[in-house]
């Protein structure tokens, strides 16, 4: 009896020790994960001249909103925000739907060209025509200075198609066979059976596509930089960052400035952090709503029945 009690006590101690180690480990992971975000937020809210001194961690030494005022005083920012939002919404919907349709086709066992098209699709992930041929293609398609250049070139993505197809391959094929027996055609099977079952992977792909559209600025620089009506938020923020005077961080350049003038100086570091916060917030707002599906989608292929 005494031996059983001793064994039980040791087991409880081992369990508590293990739980303590896990809690400490997860706490450290949380701190490491949150610190960069809190540091960026603190620097973006800190007075610019004081930022140059360094040593800011998770709390601003001299709180100010001047860095954000510097960003939002640009007129094109609203236009860029509208264009970025619209291209993100439209591009995500069309991108996810197109990827799902192609993935469903390639997952069909009765599709004769399945292996050939799958191989061609994979090859596009390893080989690219390059920047100049890509620009010439966009020019010949008449997409220069056009809103469609944000949507059409990236409407189908090979990586996303492979992810969705892998998920569809894991679904019981008997579902499709039963639907065919009941008289359903291919479109009905795809729309009413496959798509509802693919919510986790579609949410994952949607997040990837949305983040890509939201953070994109290079296509605006290449194709629509001469049209202010087609500018995007990231492109405008990039221009603000480039236009920020690097000389404002030079101590010699600030010696002759008064106290009030020093307070109005905005350092590139402060602008950079404020821009980072502006671009991060929309993603942080959307992510909690798709987190459940995103976690499920990332486990595709992890378990085989």
From TrEMBL:
Transmembrane regions listed in the UniProt entry: 21-38, 85-104, 116-135, 147-168, 189-214, 271-290
Species annotation: Metabacillus halosaccharovorans
Domain of life the protein comes from: Bacteria
Family: Belongs to the binding-protein-dependent transport system permease family.
Gene3D superfamilies recorded: MetI-like
Keyword Transferase: no
Membrane protein topology class: Multi-pass membrane protein
Name the UniProt record assigns to this protein: Carbohydrate ABC transporter permease
Key words, A-Z: Cell membrane, Membrane, Transmembrane, Transmembrane helix, Transport
